Amino acid sequence: MERAGAEQPTPPLFKQPRPRLQRGIIILPSAFTLGNLFFGIYAIVAATRSSYIWAAWYIVWAGILDLLDGRVARFTRTGSAFGAELDSLVDAISFGVAPGLIMYQLYFSDNAWSWTLAYVYVTAAVVRLARFNVEQAGHAKAHFHGLPSPTAGMILATYYPFSQTPFFEAYLATLPWPQIMAMTMVLLGVLMVSHVPYPVMPRIGLRTRKGLLTTVLLGVCIATAVTLPRYFFFPFLVLYTVGGLLNSVVLGLLDRLPERDPLLDEEEEPDEAGAELRSMDYTEVAPSRRPLERHDDEGGDEP
Questions:
Q1: Taking the CA of residue 93 as centre, how many other CA atoms within 13 Å lie in the half-sphere pointing to its CB?
Q2: Distance (Å, whole) CA 106 – CA 214
Q3: Contact indicator for 26, 78 with CB cutoff of 8 Å
Q4: CA-to-CA separations, 7 to 2, 11, 12, 14, 294, in angstroms, rounded
Q5: Cβ–Cβ under 8 Å, residues 60 and 107
Q6: pLDDT tens-digit profile of 86-140?
Q7: Number of other residues whose CB lies within 10 A of the CB of residue 34
Q8: Of 249, 240, 33, the residue nearest 154 (C-alpha)
Q9: I need a labelling partner for 114 at 20 to 30 A (CA). Which of 51, 120, 217, 266 fits?
């Protein structure tokens, strides 16, 4: 038994090294996010060159990478607050600035003040992303709180390829599309900052009937998107947007509450692309530093 007042052993000067994570795995989700940024910037360049079809497909590719980066982070267990913040900054460009510029170049460049429509849309996208980071980023969820910014951005971007199809030219070309798209930009901005719940992408699987049906439907959607992209993206995204809004309105008119809070976090549920689930301490991969030894001079002030 140790005697009272006995001198305690001096703690070791250096801590035992903690296991280090692989840096290549850590940067993998951010590589997807930066790929998203690459296509967002490329879409802006294409729009300035009046290549609106290519600009639309670049934003679609940005959306695909945005969908994957958070899932890669969860799969490799390297999610971080840094990744969530980086993703939101990139999304503001790829799904805010780039689609707003496309709409400005198409319809609003002749009027002196019509650029404010693009400003309203980009502002809503930025506010939506900031609110997402505060309320939901880093947590699994069953629904999006407001319309996701990638959905809004891809609606504006893929309008032009859809407008070049024979179906559009035969049945829809006579409509006042500049006014329609102006109202669409405002409506998308309102929906992004609204409290309308939008469902996330459902899980796929083969063990249950629901999972099997979901897998088949997603397979059909992917096949259609690959074979008929001009006919698929714009109508599909518009239906998703209108469907979520109508569902919320109908439930409100019927004064019906869902069985559970649609915004309640759910463990391991799919979340908005880019929302990463696991926090990570970057000190584990930072270079170790020797602690500075402090020498107090006798009788001197403590430094």
A1: 19
A2: 37
A3: yes
A4: 9, 12, 15, 20, 22
A5: no
A6: 888 999 999 999 999 999 999 998 888 889 999 999 999 999 999 888 876 655 5
A7: 14
A8: 240
A9: 51
Residue extents of the structural domains in the chain: 23-282
Helix (H) or strand (E) holding 47, with range, is: helix 23-48
Query: Each residue of 263-285: pLDDT tens digit?
Result: 555 444 444 444 434 444 444 44
Beta bridge partners of 265: 141
pTM of the full predicted structure? 0.76
Residues with Cβ within 8 Å of residue 137, at least 6 apart in sequence: 84, 88, 275, 276
Q: Which residues contact 25 (CB under 8 A, 6 or more apart)?
A: 76, 78
Q: What amino acid is encoded at 211 in this protein?
A: G
Residue with tokens 């463990």: 267
